[in-house]
């Protein structure tokens, strides 16, 4: 696929996925269009070799796979790609209503390790999942997206905060309530949600009982730069990897067991029913391969590539990188290495990736954090520990990780895709 078409589809996916729930819907729609069938975890499964399937949990995590021949599975194992659907953001509190000086605001809770300064003065909308009751007393869950700007977090003028550019600390409780209107009466936020749902085609909403809602920037993803060298968007960490994994799975020729797993809650530790430190992937695997001996043989012949973006060396802050390990945008995917196992890469899994990349003519970079700085982590070590599977941590280099608007190279996503497709097709590990 041409890089321009790949990036067009990527941008379309990013704009359609303002929350983890919307991201999973976007993934599921594309899988269904490619012939994959959705299965329910609560139902019976009848699996046919060669066909594609997917399951969702909590509406925010998804596992998609192409079913292999049973006789070959134990001997050949699985080729897994892992990513995560969540991104740092601001979420609406359960009782968010604030009415101060005639302004209507919503209280927020910071989700994950967000960069907070970029959230000021942005045109914000709201999206997420709403749980509601109809007139007959039945409970329902629906996704909503206001789409248009409905909120903003205004900055304080420099005249009233002379130290803003030198020593400003952001108090999330007092500085970040979002401004959404003006009036003499304090509205009921749940009633506002109910009215919005009725006005946008959700019928029968008698009462909104609860919600999980995220603010997001309404500015869409875009290719930028004099020669369109970059892609700017919210949620590149880590919807970029979700999309690359999706395209790789859909476009790979049938081979051994091929799996894409996109978990929620990575940004807050992964410990949940649908997170990488939860049981979802293990329970799926036990259901696919109930025989423990065959399952353990398959895992011994398997490999996971955990795809999560890497820190590109910033031209204004190059001292934050080890001099020999500063990945450049548009210079290829990055193998992420940490001696203390914050990343799960080892020489065996790294060598395999380098070999595949060389065969595709794709350059490869390495990232190691400075020895005097702490290192982040991914779902790689967590999944490796849960399953006992060989693992590589890889990522596309980016700037502004965890900002409301991040930046990646326009060449790198398609470059990683070109390596992941032959990885999924490998007969042996």
TrEMBL record:
Query: Could you provide one GO biological process annotation from this protein's UniProt record?
Result: proteolysis
InterPro entries per UniProt: Peptidase_M18 (IPR001948), Peptidase_M18_dom2 (IPR023358)
MF GO annotations: aminopeptidase activity; metallopeptidase activity; zinc ion binding
Record's keyword annotation contains Cell cycle:
no
Q: Does the keyword Zinc apply?
A: yes
Key words, A-Z: Aminopeptidase, Hydrolase, Metal-binding, Metalloprotease, Protease, Zinc
Cellular component aspect of the GO annotation: cytoplasm
Domain of life, per UniProt, equals: Bacteria
Which E.C. number(s) belong to this protein? 3.4.11.-
Cofactor(s) of this protein: Zn(2+)
Regarding protein family, the annotation reads: Belongs to the peptidase M18 family.
Q: What name does the UniProt record give this protein?
A: M18 family aminopeptidase
Q: Which organism is it from?
A: Marinobacterium lacunae
